[in-house]
C-alpha cells in the first residue's frame, strides 16, 4: 500500500475510534464517514450510504451531495441499480461509464437524465436481518476510479461497517437506558397514586400493557405526561 494510503487508513481508523469513544449518534457518524470517503478515495466527488430494506424500500442513510440521494430515489422506484446489486448480491459493483453500462437499463436512463454521474463504486456494508446496505462513491467523469480507488474504497467500506455496528450498539444502549428511566418514573407515579410498592407498580403496568395491547413504555410515557401536561399555548 502506498505511503499516502497508509496515512489515510491511519486517519480513518482514528476517526472510527473517535466515533466510538465519543458515543457519536449513528446518523452523524455515518455522514462523517461518507464525507471522509468522498475526500480521500481518488477520483471521488460524492459518496453515499444506501439502505435496502426487506420490504424493498430504498433509503439514503448518509450522503455528501444531493446526487447520491437522487440515485437512491431512482433505485427505490425501479428496484435496480449498482448500490442495490452490491447490497443484495454481497459484492463490489464497479461502473466505469454509466453511459455505456447496460446492466440496469432503466436505472441508467433515469440516472443520466437526472445527474451528471458516470462512474460508480458500490460496496456491500452489512446484513443485520432487517436491512442491507452499500457504501458508494461517485464521479462525473467516466473511468474515474482506478486500482487505488478500489483498494481504498474497500478499506473505507470495512471501517464504515465496523463503525456502524459500534454506533448502533451505542444507540440501542442509550435507548434502553432511556426506556428504563421512563418506566422508572411511571412506576413512581403509580406508587404514589395507588400506594403500591415498586414491584406491585411494575406488575400493574405490565398487566395494563397485556390487557390493552399497548407497550409498557407507551403506557409509561402517557402516565408521565398526565402528571406533567404541557401548558396550552394561548390562542393568537
From TrEMBL:
Keywords: Kinase, Transcription, Transcription regulation, Transferase. Residues 163-224 form the ANTAR domain. One of its GO terms (molecular function) is RNA binding. PROSITE patterns: ANTAR. It holds the Pfam family ANTAR. It comes from the Bacteria. This is Response regulator receiver protein.
Amino acid at each position: 500500500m502506498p505511503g499516502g494510503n497508509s496515512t489515510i487508513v491511519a486517519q480513518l481508523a482514528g476517526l472510527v475510534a473517535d466515533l466510538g469513544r465519543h458515543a457519536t449518534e449513528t446518523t452523524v457518524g455515518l455522514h462523517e464517514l461518507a464525507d471522509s470517503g468522498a475526500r480521500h478515495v481518488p477520483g471521488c466527488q460524492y459518496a453515499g450510504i444506501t439502505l435496502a430494506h426487506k420490504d424493498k424500500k430504498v433509503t439514503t442513510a448518509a450522503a455528501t451531495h444531493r446526487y447520491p440521494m437522487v440515485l437512491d430515489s431512482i433505485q427505490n422506484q425501479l428496484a435496480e441499480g449498482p448500490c442495490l446489486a452490491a447490497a443484495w448480491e454481497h459484492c463490489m459493483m464497479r461502473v466505469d461509464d454509466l453511459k455505456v453500462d447496460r446492466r440496469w437499463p432503466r436505472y441508467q436512463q433515469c440516472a443520466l437524465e437526472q445527474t451528471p454521474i458516470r462512474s460508480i463504486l458500490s460496496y456491500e456494508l452489512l446484513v443485520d436481518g432487517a436491512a442491507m446496505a452499500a457504501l458508494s462513491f461517485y464521479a462525473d467523469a467516466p473511468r474515474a476510479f482506478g486500482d487505488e480507488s478500489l483498494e481504498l474504497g474497500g478499506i473505507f467500506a470495512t471501517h464504515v461497517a465496523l463503525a456502524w455496528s459500534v454506533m448502533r450498539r451505542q444507540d440501542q444502549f442509550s435507548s434502553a437506558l432511556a426506556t428504563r428511566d421512563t418506566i422508572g418514573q411511571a412506576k413512581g407515579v403509580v406508587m404514589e397514586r395507588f400506594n403500591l410498592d415498586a414491584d406491585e407498580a411494575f406488575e400493574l403496568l405490565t398487566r395494563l400493557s397485556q390487557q390493552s395491547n399497548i407497550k409498557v413504555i407507551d403506557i409509561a410515557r402517557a402516565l408521565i405526561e398526565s402528571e406533567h401536561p404541557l401548558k396550552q399555548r394561548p390562542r393568537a
